[in-house]
Write a structure and sequence with these properties.
The protein has five helices and 39 strands. The chain has a 22-stranded antiparallel beta barrel. Strands 4-9-10-7-8 form a five-stranded mixed sheet. The longest helix has 17 residues. By secondary structure, it is mainly beta. The radius of gyration is 26 Å and the shape is globular. Helix content is 6%, strand content 58%. The chain has one domain: TonB-dependent receptor, beta-barrel domain (Maltoporin, Chain A, Beta Barrel), CATH 2.40.170.
Length: 699
């Protein structure tokens, strides 16, 4: 005879033998069953009814040419409607950033360095990109939710060590290890990358100048099952990266520095250091009809741009040492109550406090604009302008929503969300959301939705510029207006359908439109790789996405195509960053956003010839980002094709995995942007052909 009991927070199996009871800890299979049930309950706290969801699992990631070594942001390029840009940027549905990242359902606050540089693809069991008209529980960043579910020692034991190397002196060792012991399970991973190609260079050369990088990342997931109803999860991650800023040879200097001859533009020494460290602790409880998760979180991030003082003065008239840092602490709570079969009510809140620091120490010359509006140096001896600021901000949001099953085929999810931001200015909004899903047949699903959204500017990037401090210097702005950046408010609409064809093919079609007030965009308005947010008074974003996927035995394939338009009119904040002629034009004309790309495509196929060898081919195509005066022109169409071959060598029970990867297989040079247009300060080229070999040993 057997029974279960909970004693001092630990779960035991009670076994009776001839009337004598003995207590034993739950076996590993029982712990695994509980972990799986709690995972399913956690997923149920995050519905996506009425939205569009695209999922990528660990096997799909492994099929990419670089596998789990693929830069995190580039994983998103395999999703519909994702356009690439330089400096790790990815644009979903015509938005600059506006992406929210969650790990195991917990909000990860934004970091200065960019999330793509902080997380490793090795941590992912599966992840979903949720776009469209989001349910009420999702606020702040609403272009898409990147929901990452981490690997867990509850479902896998052992580890792996990998060594990758190849073109541009790339060297990348990595490891991961997972396991469980009683009610505990864990997963840890870490890697180090050293390469002579860190940032997209300003030239098409195979070996760019001064473009080295060193990057270290670490991640840990730890889980303790208190009893069949309660679990404590701890997630922590850390990333430290150093980048050399690539040089553009053959440039002509515009300024003179007293006591120095002209420095060759190929020998400048700019660099940037980025750090990001985060942690969450989540308490999850599931009792069938009731389920909730409570999670405090913290993230500290910093970006520090180091100029080449003399060189930057000669070429730019200013050498700015820029440091941005942010400490974000918050609390997230989500709960659900299944009232009966027809209604599931969900409610929750999030509260976040930010302390943002922006330090700017600039070496400048005395200078003045001439009659043609060109800055003229009036002294050859530089002086220092210090412009530092610290700002605290608060974000708070609450929501309630009801998942109403009108019939066995029709589900309605409706709710309200209220958000408050108090940082540089105080703003709030009440946002209704509604989504409808109709299961027309077992193979056909239709969805539609509407969402009112409220998107505050990123507190950590809004740095108040003291324009008067730079008056009479070569860093003086031609435009002396700096209206405060405001929150974006929009009405979003989405209609789509998915169809299962047979057992192996899935197709989808989705359309969307967004009408915006105070549309947020971000731009690089100087040599530092730090972005500044701006507002367009009006915006409109709309598009169409199509996707198809195939999977059967040893073959999988996918293809995505997206048409998109993102337009804005009249700059109403951070005007100092643009010229007066562009501001005048944008005030009277709808213009393309700098990241607007009409056509975006991605496709891939992977096939196993036997149980040991698998090949994959992946490609992207884009019609080109915007360029020129007020973004009135666009870059040429580009494409990149990548390939890999993996082979398992059965040395023993675990064996050895070998992977040969080739990026830009056809070695077609293409330029991502040319440094012109609104909010683009430098040219960047895509990678040339690069060859890498990796070896993975599992244990």
């Amino acid at each position: 005879m057997k029974a279960k009991a909970i004693v001092w927070g630990c779960t035991f199996a009670l076994t009776s033998m001839d009337g004598v009871w003995a207590a034993e800890p739950l076996t590993v299979p029982e712990v695994t069953v509980i972990a799986k049930r709690l995972d399913e309950a956690r997923n149920a706290l995050n519905p996506d009814i009425g939205a569009s969801t695209y999922v990528m699992d660990a096997d799909s990631i492994n099929d990419l040419p670089l596998g789990a070594s693929t830069d995190f942001n580039k994983l998103l390029f395999q999703m519909p409607g994702a356009a690439q840009n330089s400096l790790g940027q990815v644009h979903i549905r015509g938005e600059h950033a506006n992406l929210q990242y969650r790990i195991n359902g917990i909000l990860l606050p934004e970091g200065i360095s960019g999330f793509g540089n902080a997380v490793d693809g090795r941590i992912i069991d599966h992840m979903a990109l949720i776009t469209g008209t989001l349910p009420a529980q999702y606020g702040y960043r609403t272009a898409g939710i990147v929901d990452i579910h981490t690997r867990s020692g509850a479902f896998e034991d052992g580890g792996a060590m990998e060594m990758r190397g190849g073109s541009t002196t790339t060297f990348q060792p990595s490891f991961n290890y997972s396991g469980h012991e009683g009610a505990w399970n864990y997963f840890v991973t870490g890697n180090f990358l050293s390469s002579e190609h860190g940032i997209e260079p300003p030239t098409s050369k195979t070996n760019p100048l001064h473009d080295g990088t060193d990057q270290g990342k670490g991640f840990g997931y730890f889980s303790y099952i208190v009893n069949p109803f309660n679990r404590i999860d701890v997630v922590m991650g850390s990333s430290v990266s150093r980048f050399e800023i690539p040089n553009n040879p053959g440039q002509s200097s515009s300024y003179q520095v007293d006591g120095y001859g002209t420095i060759d533009s190929a020998k400048l020494k700019e660099s940037q250091v980025e750090q990001s460290h985060y942690a969450t602790v989540a308490w999850q409880r599931d009792q069938g009809e009731y389920s909730f998760q409570l999670a405090p979180y913290v993230r500290w991030s910093q970006t520090h741009f180091h100029p080449d003082v003399v060189g930057d003065l000669q070429y730019n008239g200013v050498a700015a040492d820029i440091m941005r840092a942010d400490v974000a602490t918050g609390l997230q709570a989500d709960g659900s109550w299944k009232i009966h079969e027809a209604h599931i009510v969900r409610a929750g809140l999030v509260f976040q406090h930010d302390t943002a620091q922006a330090n700017n120490t600039s070496n400048v010359f005395s200078g003045a604009f001439d009659a043609n509006g060109t800055m003229q140096q009036t002294a050859t001896t530089s002086y220092v302008v210090t412009d530092n600021a610290t700002k605290e901000g608060i974000l708070a949001g609450v929501y309630v929503q009801d998942e109403w099953h009108l019939s066995d085929k029709l589900t309605l999810n409706y709710g309200l969300r209220f958000d408050q931001v108090d940082a540089y200015i105080a703003e709030n909004q009440l946002s209704p959301r509604v989504g409808l899903v109709y299961q027309a047949t077992p193979a056909t699903t239709l969805h539609a939705g509407y969402a009112r959204t409220f998107t505050p500017p990123p507190i950590e990037l809004v740095a108040p510029n003291s324009l008067l401090k730079f008056q009479g210097s070569t860093a003086q702005s031609a435009v002396q207006v700096d209206d405060q950046v405001r929150s974006e408010r929009s009405h979003s609409f989405d209609i789509g359908a998915s169809q299962q064809i047979g057992d192996h093919v899935q197709v989808g079609l989705d359309s969307y439109a967004k009408l915006v007030k105070n549309l947020l965009d971000e731009g690089q308005f100087g040599s530092a790789l730090v972005f500044t947010p701006i507002n367009y008074q009006e915006g409109r974003v709309y598009g169409l996405e199509g996707t198809i996927s195939y999977s059967d035995k040893g073959t999988s394939a996918y293809a995505n195509i997206a048409l998109s338009r993102a337009m804005g009119k009249k700059i109403v904040s951070s005007q100092f960053a643009l010229g007066q002629d562009e501001l005048n034009y944008i005030s009277n004309n709808w213009v393309h956003l700098d990241h607007d790309q009409l056509l975006t495509m991605s496709a891939g196929i992977a096939h196993s010839f036997d149980e040991l060898t698998r090949v994959s081919l992946d490609g992207i195509l884009g019609s080109g980002l915007r360029k020129g005066f007020a973004n009135t022109d666009h870059m040429p169409l580009y494409t990149q094709l990548d390939a890999s071959v993996t082979h398992h060598v059965p040395l023993d029970a675990e064996g050895l995995d070998l992977r040969l990867s080739v990026l830009n297989l056809l070695d077609v040079p293409y330029q991502i942007n040319d440094g012109t247009g609104i909010s683009t300060a430098a040219a960047h080229w895509g990678p040339r052909r690069s060859v890498f070999l990796s070896m993975t040993r599992r244990f």
